[in-house]
Design brief:
Oligomer: single chain
Strand content: 5-15%
Bound molecules: zinc ion
Number of helices: 27
CATH class of the domain at 3-11 and 55-78 and 134-395: Alpha Beta
Radius of gyration: 27 Å
Length: 767
């Protein structure tokens, strides 16, 4: 009998219960007991759900109040001194490390002021983890026993679980040295860390756990030899300890083949591999499974929302069975289900046909169970039949297939993805037409999204104000933003984006081929959840999406107004993509829709158009090699298809955040002007990387995540540093990113200082 397994379940609750209670706790509206009560209820609910679905191997310790990697830092006492010195409770220490804490002194409590630890993207997903931060003073010891407590909690409910922890090598490798210990190599701490894994696993065994799942997702990265060696060391050590639960080493999000040597002959119970993202690794990984080891086949997608194809998956699992025998094969989700929305049954506005093609975390439980039963020879014919019907219906769905779009993508040629003239010629025409000063100033697009804006948008969504009333409101907001920018004397203005809820959703809602959920939330970090739109079919633009607002803004001023669009790669990356066509095709479809929009903006008199690609970096495949260069090539092509339909004198801008950009990749986009997040980066090396960038560039001059107002002198110093390396005639002056989350007062002060600094340099360069 083949078993079914789930690697992790969303912790947020079907109705975002976790967000509501944690935020209430942070605001002092509920007590810590209220918080823990909701946590306990959510865990119980998740376990029961999985048990009732018939899942054999159910995870525990996948729950977290903030982030499961941060939980582990707390568990192993990897807590920098700046947090321990306040002697907060464990949960408050966890939150302080995750999100910082600033608290005035009261009669009972001391004042606290500490910033958060660094947060980074979890591989190529949109989840973010808090980086384990080690220093020479880190004292490894067990701090509580969360994994044991949660295991016992499930046991009390009569549910045997498999506790899951991030493994020792990934925990260290994904971490970093604290600023007081920069010479420390986290991996060198392995020897000190391993005994703690032994200790917690012993406690789990004593509590009755027979198996554990240790996640080592770093194994899908390009690993230096010493990291591969560390994997071998760690699991040889753990596997040889007597009396521990059986260890399954789990990897996901890619292929482990280049690191396979590290996994050979490890004395552990089994492995889990992701065959959704890397089906091609099957023969290689199957060849290292030892005589008594199990293979957990990740075949139900933990990262996307499409229904599984039971026939295809069963066939795949069968391959494993014929090699290893049914007893040694497990059918599993490809990764934790953390990255999918909780329950499709919460969607009552979705089109019924589309709904029939989707599967959220709750539905995926049934999927692993059905596939496991099917390959075990049990009768699941009703489920198979319904599934086959849905798969067939999807293949011929008119929602999904639009021959006109497919034809248009096929007809993309070199000319469509190349501007009419090279940058130098375009620039000459633009300079003549625009007459901008040296050090032109601009912003990245959005201005403060005030409460008033949210209230009016809600009223419009609910139908309590009419479309005309809403448009009037938006226009008045646009006018406010234009007057403000004129007043502080910016050079290239924006309309401020008061009409946009989100930079992808706003366009997605206007494109054919997108679907939206009402409750499809996925945790991005802490209590921030996102609701990714779903690309369901061939994408096209029925009508103009942003022209009205831009044209209105331009009608109010003699200065240039930038049209603002979200680029094809960002639309793709921040959505659930299709799996029936490749991502390049989806990017090109988006590019064509945006091309029409760019051309319409130009035709309506907008002479500067910015196409943002903040997500272009995160789309980069995890490993170096052909796949990565391929991505860079088609991502750039998609951008150029979107932006190459305009005349030479129309200026194309683009914007990127999350730095660490590859200047060559940016160069391939051939935008006339790019702006990049830079304020936290200002080291000479990073500037030098962009020195030879041929087109114009704005290096972000202030951090928009902070309410802090930089002085004019600070701007001057910063610009001076940049100008030591970077030529003045190519330099634009702008903030790091959009100002949507900022208040008006700090926006006014910061931008005024920034504009005055630009004027200072204009004077200097006149001389
Ligand atoms: Zn940005």
């Amino acid at each position: 009998m083949v078993k079914s397994a789930v690697l992790g379940f969303p912790r947020i609750g079907p109705n975002r219960e976790l967000k509501k209670v944690t935020e209430s706790y942070w605001n002092g509206k509920v007590t810590v007991d209220d918080l823990f009560k909701v946590g306990k209820e959510l865990r119980a609910q998740n376990w029961k759900l999985q048990k009732d679905a018939g899942v054999d191997i159910i995870p525990s310790n996948d729950f977290s109040y903030y982030d499961h990697v941060l939980d582990l830092s707390l568990l192993f006492n990897v807590i920098p001194d700046r947090y321990t010195k306040y002697q907060l409770s464990p949960i408050d220490t966890l939150f302080a490390m995750g999100r910082g804490l600033q608290r005035k002194a009261t009669e009972t409590e001391k004042a606290v002021d500490v910033t958060a630890l660094e947060m980074v993207k979890w591989f190529d997903s949109n989840y973010h983890y808090v980086r384990p931060t080690f220093s020479h003073s880190t004292q490894f010891k067990l701090n509580g026993q969360k994994p044991v407590d949660e295991f016992l909690e499930a046991k009390e409910l009569g549910i045997q679980t498999r506790p899951v922890l991030v493994g020792p090598v990934s925990f260290l490798y994904l971490g970093k040295a604290d600023k007081d210990s920069l010479d420390l190599e986290p991996l060198s701490l392995l020897e000190k860390l391993l005994p703690l894994y032994v200790e917690i696993l012993q406690k789990l065994a004593a509590a009755g756990a027979t198996e554990v799942q240790l996640d080592e997702p770093t194994l899908v990265l390009d690993l230096p030899k010493e990291v591969q060696a560390a994997v071998k060391t760690a699991y040889t050590f753990l596997g040889n300890q007597a009396g521990l639960p059986k260890i399954t080493l789990a990897t996901y999000f890619g292929t482990v083949v280049p690191n396979l040597d590290a996994l050979k002959e490890l004395p552990i119970a089994g492995f889990h591999f992701d065959f959704i993202r890397a089906a091609e690794q099957f023969d290689d990984v199957a060849s290292i499974i030892g005589a008594n080891q199990t293979l957990s086949v990740g075949i139900v997608d933990g990262r996307n929302i499409w229904k599984n194809d039971f026939a295809k998956s069963s066939e795949f699992v069968q391959k494993a069975i014929s090699k290893l025998g049914a007893e040694r094969v497990i059918v599993a989700t490809s990764s934790s289900l953390l990255h999918t929305p909780v329950d499709l049954n919460n969607e009552n506005k979705l089109n019924a046909e589309l709904k029939n093609y989707f599967s959220f975390a709750t539905q995926k439980l049934e999927e692993v169970v059905v596939i496991a039963k099917n390959v075990s020879g049990q009768d699941v014919s009703a489920a198979l039949e319904a599934n086959a019907k849905s798969v067939a219906a999807k293949a011929s769905s008119t929602f999904i297939n639009d021959p006109a779009v497919q034809q248009r993508v096929a007809s993309i040629d070199k000319k469509m993805s190349t501007r009419a003239a090279p940058f130098g010629e375009r620039l000459a025409e633009q300079e003549k037409a625009f007459n901008l000063p040296l050090f032109p100033t601009t912003t990245i697009g959005s201005f403060p999204q005030t409460k008033d804006i949210r209230i009016n948008r809600n009223k419009f969504t609910k139908g309590t104000i009419s479309a005309e009333e809403y448009e009037q409101f938006i226009n008045s907001e646009i006018e406010k933003v234009i007057r403000f920018q004129e007043e502080i004397d910016l050079d290239v203005l924006v309309h401020g984006e008061p009409e946009r809820n989100d930079m992808v959703q706003y366009f997605g809602e206007q494109l054919k081929g997108y679907a939206f959920t009402t409750n499809g939330w996925v945790q991005s970090y802490g209590s921030r959840y996102v609701r990714p739109p779903i690309i369901v079919g061939d994408l096209s633009r029925p009508k103009a999406m942003s022209v009205k607002e831009s044209v209105y803004a331009q009608s109010l001023t003699k200065k240039l107004v930038k049209g603002m669009l979200t680029g094809p790669i960002t639309c793709l990356r921040w959505s659930f993509p299709r799996v029936d066509v490749d991502q390049k095709t989806q990017a090109l479809q988006l590019a064509l829709a945006l091309r029409d929009e760019v051309n319409d903006l130009e035709a309506a008199g907008i002479r500067v158009i910015q196409v943002d690609e903040p997500a272009i970096r995160e789309g980069l495949p995890l490993r170096a090699g052909a796949e990565r260069s391929d991505y860079q090539q088609w991502a750039a092509e998609a951008f150029r298809v979107a932006t190459s339909g305009v005349a030479n004198k129309t200026q194309i801008h683009s914007h990127f955040c999350y730095s660490d950009l590859d200047p060559n990749h940016i160069k391939a986009l051939d935008a006339d002007v790019v702006s990049i997040e830079f304020s936290k980066k200002d080291d000479a090396n990073y500037i030098a990387e962009f020195k030879d960038y041929p087109n114009h560039i704005g290096l972000g001059l202030f951090d928009i995540h902070s309410p802090r107002v930089p002085s004019k002198e600070e701007f001057i110093t910063k610009i001076e540093t940049i100008l030591k390396t970077y030529p003045a005639e190519k330099f634009w002056v702008n903030p790091d990113c959009g100002l949507k989350t900022r208040g008006w007062e700090e926006t006014r002060l910061s931008l005024t200082n920034m504009v005055n600094a630009a004027k200072y340099f204009r004077e200097q360069y006149k001389k």
